[in-house]
Amino acid sequence: MSSYEEHSHRKNLFSVGKLGYAKGDRPAVDCILCGVRDKLEIVPNLTIASTDLSIVSVNLFPYNPGHIIIFPKRHITTYLELTEEEASDIHRLTQKTMRILESHWRVQGFNLGYNLGKNSGGSIPHIHEHIVPRFPNEAGFLDVFANTRVVIYEPYKMLEDLKKLWNEFE
Ligand SMILES: [Zn+2]
């Protein structure tokens, strides 16, 4: 790849840090996840798929490329409020998301879980499960996905790919 091509390729990518909402400029809404659910125009919408009970979305505040969140449509703030129906729905969506990431981006490791309540590191009260792909050198995803080792990616491109894959998977 010539330096010109490399340069123009990289111009088409943008870094997570350059996204306004990733720097703390969060949309002025009571709850950003309810805003995603209600498709409010001022909330960036990275929804991959939804069911009657839950939504799967590329994380609005990613800390790794491929970072996905799954959350109940109901605004609840504690795990104890999650019903069995919601929990199984989220479970099914989690497995499907993992299968897609494993098969399409060859993800081999994950961190999976919730940050709940004060002191947990969570920043959005509406409960949401994180699916964070992990790599041997934390650059493997980018080698496959963005053909670059620079830690930048284009979330909306990834969103389009994931939406297509979602419909192909059972
Ligand atoms: Zn909410």
List the helices and strands and how they pair.
Layout: H1 3-11, H2 32-37, E1 47-50, E2 54-58, E3 68-72, H3 84-105, E4 109-114, E5 129-134, H4 140-145, H5 155-168
Antiparallel strand pairs: 1-2, 2-3, 3-5, 4-5
The structure holds zinc ion.
Zinc ion is lined by residues 31, 33-34, 75, 126.
Summarize this structure as a short list of keywords or feature phrases:
about 170 residues, alpha+beta, HIT family, subunit A, 5 helices, about 15% strand, globular, disordered N terminus, binds zinc ion, nucleotide-binding, nucleotide binding, AP-4-A_phosphorylase, FHIT, catalytic activity
Tell me what the structure shows.
This protein is of the alpha+beta class. The protein has a single domain, classed as HIT family, subunit A, CATH 3.30.428. Helices cover 34% and strands 15% of the residues. It has helices at residues 3-11, 32-37, 84-105, 140-145, 155-168, and strands spanning 47-50, 54-58, 68-72, 109-114, 129-134. The longest helix is centred in the middle third of the chain and has 22 residues, at 84-105. The protein is globular. The termini are far apart. Residues 1-23 and 147-152 have low confidence and may be disordered. The structure holds zinc ion. Zinc ion is lined by residues 31, 33-34, 75, 126.
